[in-house]
Structure formats: C-alpha cells, structure tokens
Amino acid sequence: MIVWIDGLLVAAGTARIDPRDRGFMLGDGLYETIRVRQGEILRLDRHFARLAAGLELLDFPLAADPAMLERGVRAVLDANRLAEAAVRLTVSRGVSARGMAPDPKAKPTIVISATPYTPPVPVRLIIATGTRRNEHSPTARVKTTSCLDSILARIEAARAGMDDAILLNSAGCVAEATAANIFAVLDGVPVTPPVSDGALPGVMREQIVGRQKVEERTLSAADLDRAEEIFLTSSLGIRPVISLEGRPLPVGPLATRLAGEI
Amino acid sequence: MIVWIDGLLVAAGTARIDPRDRGFMLGDGLYETIRVRQGEILRLDRHFARLAAGLELLDFPLAADPAMLERGVRAVLDANRLAEAAVRLTVSRGVSARGMAPDPKAKPTIVISATPYTPPVPVRLIIATGTRRNEHSPTARVKTTSCLDSILARIEAARAGMDDAILLNSAGCVAEATAANIFAVLDGVPVTPPVSDGALPGVMREQIVGRQKVEERTLSAADLDRAEEIFLTSSLGIRPVISLEGRPLPVGPLATRLAGEI
Fold it and tell me: Is the Cβ pair B102, A151 closer than 8 Å?
C-alpha cells in the first residue's frame, strides 16, 4: 500500500508519523472516508465541507487547499491502481510538546490512504449497553479521530456475535451506529435521529435527506423495536439491518431502492 | 529528545509510528503521565494499575510486562539525562486495517518519552461551556488517547485568557479539569466529584483521598462559587486555583500543605 503524507507518496510500511504527533498522543485530529466508484471520487465537496467544519471547531488550519487534497487522493488511487476504493483522509494537529494545550505553531499532518472497495453487506445489530455517545459535545458533529466510544461499542457487538452496535446518547435515545447513521421506517415513514441527538452529520445521510422525505426526530429503542425496516448509511453505502437484538428484520424496499440509486 | 518505541531507544525526530496505527487513526490508545523526582519514579505501581484497567476495557494485551516498562522508563530518563521529569507512557492498539473493528492480531505500539519537569503553577479557571464530559462512557474511568473534549475545553480557556477549564458532565455537574482532578473546600471540608460523575480516577486524587478526609460527592458550579479554596491535582502535582470565572480565590492552606507533603 502506498500512502500520501504531507505531499509525498510513500510505502505505508516505511511511512512515518512522529510519535509526538498529537493525532497519536491525544486523538487530536479529523478524518473522512470517501467512496471511489469507477475512478470517480464521490461527494468530495461534501467531505471537504465537513472537514472544514471540523478544522474550524478544532481551530487549526491546513496548509493544503481542497485542490491539493484532491490531487493527493488521485495520486494515491493511481499509485495503488484502485478504481473502486475507500479513501481515508486523516489530518492531525501535528507534532507538539506534551499536554492538552495546542501549540499554534504546530504543522498539521495530512495522510491519504486507499483500500479496495468492498460492497456493503447486511448487518446484525445490537444496542450497546457499555457506553453512550456524548451529544453534548461538538465533537459529535464533526468526524474526529477520538473514536474510542465507537470502538468499545463495536467490541461489544463482536462479543455478542453481531456486526455492529447502536450507540444511545446520554438521554438514552438513539444516536447512530459505530461508523454509520441509522434510518428506521415507522408506519411507512423513514425516520433518522437529528444531529442534536448525537447523529454525525453523515455525507450519505445528508444526501438521502435531500432527495427523499425523511423525518428527523428523536428515536427511542422502542421505536426501533417496532420498525418495519432499518438500515445504516455511510459514505461507503447502504447496509440493510437484518436483525436487531436478535429480532429478524426483512431487507426493506427503501434500503434496496436507495442502494440502487446512490 | 530520545524516546523508547517498542523496546528501542530512538531520536524522536526519526522515530516512526506507522500511519495505519490505530492510535493515530482512531485515538485507540491509553497513556500515563508519571512524575520523576530526584530520579525516583513516583507512584509507578498505581500508574501501571490504571493502565492495566484501561487495557482490560479496551481489550488488548501488551507483550511488555511492568518490569520491562519500568526498564524502558529508566532507559529514557538515562538517555535524556533527566532526574526531574514528566514521563509519558503511551500505548496504542497498533497497526490495523481500516475501520472501527479491532484486529485481534494487531501488535500494540508502546512509546515512552520524557520531558524536563516544570513545577506546577497557580491556575486561573473557567467553566467550559463549549463541551461536556461523558460520564456515561467507561472511557471516562481510564486514561485514553481520545482527548478531544479536553482539548476543546483548553482552547476555550485560552480564548478567555485563562489557564484551564472545568468540564461539566452531561448532567451539568462538575467532572474535572482538562488534565487534572478538582478539589473544593466547602465549610472546611475538602470535596471532590466521584468517578461516577466523570472524574478520572487520578493517581494523585487517589493518594489524597487515602491520606486525608475528603468527601466524594457531586459538585455543582454553585458549590464552586462559594468554595473557600479550590485546587487541581494531577500526577505532576497540586495547582492552587487563584481565580474561577474571574472571581479571585486565595491560595488555600490545604493545597499548600499537600503540595509540601506529596
């Protein structure tokens, strides 16, 4: 695998992040996962817009502009000969002295990598009991590299023999899956939790809400229990939920239709 | 600066973390900050105990045992000729494929670094309004490298011209400062928030609670407003709080006494 770091293409096995990088030390970074289909980089402007929102929140500017980042993505795709790919763009605040306080002179680190695309498969879900998503934090509204709550929920799902987990927020309402938004069809109407409940403003979520009648409102676990159809969305695609807490669910018509259209 | 990575001493400027390391990609790691005084590594057993609790929660074992880690700490202190130091021990889950799901075959990364010790100074505090600490997450009870909420609160403090910030939890009660526990003296009695309110079980906090009458109970912002004395504790020492939200506070007798004893 060849990766792009700060403007240079390097073999991943020799590419170097400094151990003092705040991305490694403190999870002080942001990322985007971007779908490439037949060589086309999908929804790149939306990914850049979310990255920009994250950079504003975390208060560090990149030296790279979107055009340079796009060239980096294309260089990584070419170097790895990938036309169907999941691109990962990761930025961190860069090398700094010990401690929480950012150094305004730190030079951010930018890494672009790509892996072969694997089509989304149906998913069996649990509702995580071990941790909660913090909807009171603005970090819930951008895509950060401080991911441990999602990782813990994913570990809990694996221990239960399932594929993924729903995170509830601090009020006990549905927020999202560990790396995807959730939609539930209730009485024929697709519903997804609002961003204020701790749902990441997902790029695919945004696209679906823009093309399709969707109610954005608080979802309870009880709502999920009676849903006719549930599916997850991420930039990599749409995943029908075929069981929730062991209850079988059908692959529904909306997930099927959207997967064909998007 | 010379750092220890996975058993080897390397100059920090050439030391290498793989860009696919989950510590960098996902904040999937833990750390300890350890005080070294006159060459003595303080409270190392308590730091190892907390690290072990974190490793159990995150579910990845280290190949290194405590004796090996202690040799690593001593090697870093010797290599950097430090007798008064802050040691940072950082572990991550290691290199892995893209995505939240841990790879059980990943080999964890261990980094030990040390910086010259600077004595703690008095601190001016705000109460952060921009984010909250997630007391519902078990990650609040171990010391993880997913630190963005603390970083955002520290940025908010700096913008207000202050030194540090108190994080409230999702219920609006006091949890801790961005990298320290908080104690407030109320009617002559030292009070500190319980771990269940989102206070990290700090090594220094534990030591103070063990040697001194302290009430562990929920603290409100109003409690802080009427406190006779406030101080912060971390493994690096005791910091008297000399203002809270602009209200001046005296350097109190308890902080002064503890700083001399611990």
Answer: yes
Three-class secondary structure of residue A116 per DSSP: strand
Is B90 within 8 Å of A19 when comparing Cβ atoms? yes
Residue type, A98: R
Residues of A192-229 as b/e, b for ≥16 C-beta within 10 angstroms? Answer: bbbbebbbbbbbbbbbbbeeeebebeebeeebbeebeb
Whether B62 and B55 have beta carbons less than 8 Å apart is answered as yes
Tell me which amino acid residue B104 is. Answer: P
Chain center to CA of B91: 14
**Residues ≥6 apart with Cβ < 8 Å to B210:** none
- State the DSSP string of B118-175: -----EEEEE-SS--B-TTSGGGGS-BS--HHHHHHHHHHHHTT-SEEEEEBTTS-EE
Write the ipTM.
0.97
Supply B27's token pair: 């904040």
Task: Enumerate the residues of chain B whose CB falls inside 8 A of the CB of residue A161.
Answer: none
Single out the residue of B101, B96, B157, B169 nearest to residue B128, CA to CA: B157
Token readout for A246 is 């062991």
In 3-state terms chain B splits into helix, strand, coil percentages (rounded to 5) of: 30, 30, 40
φ, ψ at A215 (rounded to 5°): -90, 125
How many angstroms separate the CA atoms of A20 and A23, rounded?
A: 8
Contact B24 A19 (CB under 8 A): no
Determine the distance in angstroms separating the CA of A238 from the nearest CA of chain B, rounded to an integer.
16
With an 8 Å Cβ cutoff, are B148 and A26 in contact?
yes
Q: Mark yes or no for CB contact B148/A28 under 8 Å.
A: yes
pLDDT, one tens digit per residue, over A185-244 is 999 999 999 999 999 999 999 999 999 999 999 999 999 999 999 999 999 999 999 999
- pLDDT class for A55, splitting at 50, 70, 90? very high
Q: Are strands A189-192 and A215-216 parallel, antiparallel or unpaired?
A: parallel
Write the residue in A3, A25, A144 that is nearest to B145 by C-beta.
A25
